[in-house]
Amino acid sequence: MNSGLFKKLLPHVVAIVVFLIVTAIFCKPSLEGNVLNQTDVTGWKGSAQNVFDYKATHGHYPLWNPNVFSGMPNYQIYLHGKSVLPNFPAIISLGLPKPMNFFFTACICFYILCVAFGLNPVVSIFGSLAYAFATYNAVIIGVGHESKMWAISFMPLLLAGMIFTFSKKYWLGLAISTLGAYLEIAVNHPQINFYFLLIAAAVTLAYLVDWIRKREWKHLIISGSIVIVSALIGVAGSAVTFMTSYEYSKATMRGGKSVSVEGEQVKSSKSTGLDTSYAFQYSLGKAETAVMLMPDAFGATSAKPLGDKSHVIEKLTDKGVPENQAAQVANGLPAYWGGIDGVGTSGPPYIGAIICIIALIGFVIVQTPLRWGLLAVTILAILMSWGKYLPGFNNFLFEHLPMYNKFRAPSMTLVIPGLTLPLMAVLTLQYILFGNKSKELLKADFKKILYAVGGLIGLLILIYVMMDYSSWIDRSVLMQYTDPKTGDNGFARAIVAGMKADRKGMFGGQLLRTIGFAALVLGCLYLYRRNVIKPMVIAVALAAITIIDLLVVDQDYLNADNYISPDELTSQNFVPNSVDQQISQDRNPDYRVFNNAPGWTSESRTSYFHKSIGGYHPAKLSIYQDLIDKYFSQGVDQNILNMLNVRYIIYTDQKTNVPQLAPNPYANGSCWLVKSVKLVQGPVQELQDIGTTHLKDTAIVQQSFSSQVVQPQWDSLATIKLAKFDNDTMRYSFNSSKPQFAIFSEVYYPFGWNAYIDGKKTAYCKADYVLRGLSIPAGQHSIEFIFEPSTFKRSVNIAYIASFLILIFFVGGIVMQLRRDKVKTTVSS
To answer: For 446, phi and psi rounded to 5 degrees?
Structure first.
């Protein structure tokens, strides 16, 4: 092998080996054949099983899934299309098992970003491992947010393509930008895509200002053109994801609501996105931002109790409570006391204390226009993460920032500093340790560094001193432990006092930990400045300490306890029980199942075996959510169960805790003819009236559909029945001597479902709030509902054509860059 080529490749080979070793150590159980027990992935498998069963029988995937929430587009559960592209995620991750593939991919993509900046290999390895093993990644992998993790992994790759372009490596920039845009969008997590757009905009603006100042107009035009073309082709390659999700969102809560259910009241609503009360549910407290460098400052996770060392025990024993009872109380109280009230958190977005400290230093001393873009978007993300705790600012963004009102969980915006801070940290280390005249620059800026780090520590100390350590949970503790007869709240106040002492101890301990890391960083830089330590030693030492720190924290959220054997995973979730076997004996497809258990709107085991009115999906149709809020939140409405054609109800015997089956003989069936149609003014009245109307006889339809309604003339001999059930096609036979109006117990979804009478396309309407209604003329007719979404078909064709362009741009860009580099090498030699 050419010695020059070997020297160039060796650092990259070493980096890959290091990534493999670290991921293998952290994910050791996966190499032993075990798999993660991820609740979200298990939920997805339950939702998607009908799709795979259909494919096995019919040879192709269906477009509609009848097993989740009475029916929804299948491409929101399992995407498929045509493409000439190889499986790039599998290639990049070397086909590693989960979760090694996620961490390794994130490492590789961030490493490519470091290469785009021309950074030292050790610094690049340091930053790549820090980015991949940030605690938030371990948390979301543990619960199964895989599409989110893929999107986070590919963000640095897309940014690398932009940096290559901005650095005038146009061909390489074209190749990486196109591939990165495609992969980032294809994994179908629009919220992470949105956050990356904010990063990209900030970075681009920073470069743009510099180009304008230097009058580099040609470079500006070329770079802008490459980035725009790459983005468009990447979006086109992911057209199936992008177009279908955009269309579907119009029918979900993210597309706005026309009604609002508040207890028993139904009110009119005209929102164009999520409600702020729902969207800002996962808001971080202002001081809680410190968890980016102090992981346990706010109790880390809602699953963690205060424990046996809690001050609550001390406070209660002082009140005369036996120690074992006091310990029991303490272990029943959550350690988490941050701003995410009511819903809790699975873990902190810990980026690494050393990463945050070095990044802060970089924002102060690194002389590059890029720092202002990274700093601006980092501050923006922090302000956005506060959500409801900074209402004026965030309400303004929610109402005016395009697409922002489609997303919830402000805390998720910290994925932005999750990228910008490690990037700023590696740029800083390069500047301090390996840049031109780095030692001289360090000496000149050392006071600035001391001021910056000192200011950070001073701010944390001020927060420590000024906070009152109260939390939202204190109110419920006071209510729960106050004597209802006497009003004595002495024990309650003792518990709260103990909890506050615990919280102060948590924050104080993490503050000391951070001071220790700050002293370590400053000490290393001081010794380097004094020529005591070589820069490479500092880089390796900081890298090792940072990775060990992150891996230790990550172990609290992703460890051997998260793994089980594949057989155990199947037996726990996907083996039919006696109830499932009883239901499966009914060979008539004309029924649905209701699992009357807590959390039935977020469990998919029922969907794995049956057509369920519940299920698992993060974005339900808004009309279906309204139905749930109105008729299932305070109990179960039998009239609604009948309307949804629920023939079987699963419930749990409270004595034996064993599932039992209750047949429902009153289900309306898959279709029925009504005696009359009641026209109402709008969705509010429609939703209210279905609860007080005998829906077997009377249909409720909004006035806006009046042109599609012909009042029926009752014929006691008229018949309608399901003749064929298929995911994408339902066929019914009808016979009547008079015009009739039929209700079909299928979810109304106008983006693709078409009705045909004797092969002729016919208009139908929304009826009974969530179902379909159709006026049928007298006679004997064949009626079909066929799901033929034009958006999906167009998107498949667009994505197929774009896949050729992506492959051409990626391979062609790489080849052209290699040829260009070869020519430069030849000329220079």
So the answer is: -65, -35
Cα(382)–Cα(413) distance, integer angstroms: 7
- Residues 658 and 178: their CA atoms lie apart, in Å, by 53
Q: Is residue 46 within a helix (H) or strand (E), and if so which, with residue range?
A: helix 39-58
Pick the closest to residue 716 from 666, 675, 667 (CA basis): 675
| Residue 210: closest CA among 162, 166, 158 | 166
Cβ–Cβ under 8 Å, residues 81 and 183: no
Q: Is 8 helix (H, G, I), strand (E, B) or coil?
A: helix
DSSP tag of 618? S
Q: How far apart are CA 253 and CA 255, in angstroms?
A: 5
**Collapsing DSSP states into helix, strand and coil, what is residue 702?**
strand
39-65 tens-digit pLDDT: 888 888 888 999 999 999 999 999 999
In 3-state terms, what secondary structure has residue 766?
strand
Q: How far is CA 766 from the centre of its chain?
A: 31
The candidate with the shortest Cα–Cα distance to 432, out of 528, 543, 518, 351, is 528
Does the CA dihedral 269-275-276-281 come out positive or negative? positive
**What totals of helices (H) and strands (E) does the chain contain, helices first?**
30, 20
CA distance 585 to 397: 54
Please provide residue 601's backbone torsions phi and psi, each rounded to the nearest 5 degrees.
-90, 5
Is the pTM for the entire model greater than 0.70?
yes
- Alpha-carbon span 209 to 225, nearest angstrom: 17
pLDDT digit string, tens, across residues 292-321: 999 999 998 888 899 888 998 998 898 888
Q: Name the β-bridge partners of 702.
A: 680
Q: Which helix (H) or strand (E) holds 779?
A: strand 779-787
Report H helices in 61-99: 88-92
CB 739 within 8 A of CB 708: no
Q: Which phi and psi (to 5°) does residue 95 adopt?
A: 70, 20
